[in-house]
Amino acid sequence: MRTTLFSVATLAFGALGSSAIAMDCETITLGAAISLTGKYSTDGVHTQKGYEFAIQKIKDDGGVKIGDKCYNFNVVYYDDESKGDRGATLAERLINQDGVQYMLGPYSSGLTTAIAPVTEKYEIPMVEAEGASRSLFNKGYKNLFAVLSTSEQYLASAITLAAEMAKAEGKDPSEVTVAIAVENDPFSLDVRAGVVDDAARFGMKIVIDEKLPRDLSDMTGILTKVKLVKPDVLIVSGHAKGAATAVRQIGEQGVSVPMIAMTHCESADVVGNFGDFAENLLCSTQWSETLTYEDPIFGTASNYHEEFKAANADYADKTVPYQVAQASAAVYVFKDAFERAGSLDKAALRDAIAATDLMTFYGGIKFAPEGNNIAKPMVLRQIQGGEYKVVAPSAFASDKLVWPRP
Asked: Which domain holds residue 312?
């Protein structure tokens, strides 16, 4: 499956007291193999919509300015069907048949892991927004850059929070017991690694450590164990489909755990789909509309949130998933880098991306030599009254944690 969007804008230049002179912007073509079908399609669509929203905002702002020319972004998309081998094949096609010289990332760490060797082979700069696995950044890639925080950080803060709550009750954090249920993919295994490391730091005991089934459609067996063992904390990571399965079955089976923390709550729309079952869940997020980030194009985080919802009717009654926001941030990095490079040359662009030091509505973006973003923390939100409330880290908290989960 292939979808394309061609963006051509007219930009007016002029001075006060004189008429504007209109000119057509030229086109910079980006490529993206992305999950529009398959098990990652929910988040793949979120990602595509984030790309397209940013492309339109940049167009409305006058485009990408290089020398005396302006450009608008156009993306050539292919559907990777949530399959890594197909993603790699499509990356080759984008580069060798479509002539793409700059790439936006796919959805998920697994798909990014499949595509990164291809873009590296052809020295194609890729700015990705949805591959958080730390294993992506220890392979020596020079052309891979990620705007998001790495995955071992996603739910480690939940362990720190559980330790704080134990201390508040006069208990030793080492008394806290932890259950883990994650997908067997690079992202979720890294989430698990961060949780295991933090649990060890506090001396906590991991009493359940299970992998979710391959199709992410049933975790009854794991939840039966949870009901028998009665852990203090339950950690779940399985992208949008895994989150939906977990919330539905936790509610249906009446699973009671003082703290339940998971990834991908917003992208699975657990509030809209499961109502009270989602209440008081802790949800990791790369971004929140309540944070005080801001930039000249998208405005504040809150402004981005409201403008995106206004432009996308399907999100009107939802909290915009962070996958959308970070996809837009990836496009913004390309604009900033092209303008600083002053050139369409992919090597010059690669060097400009590597030197990025940018504040955006999504947060700070600055790349380590390995390509991961080192300028932005993760945030933990709790669903309270059907709304997402930031509860950790304390420097960003807008509300107090409900503990234990009723």
From this structure: 2-149+289-366
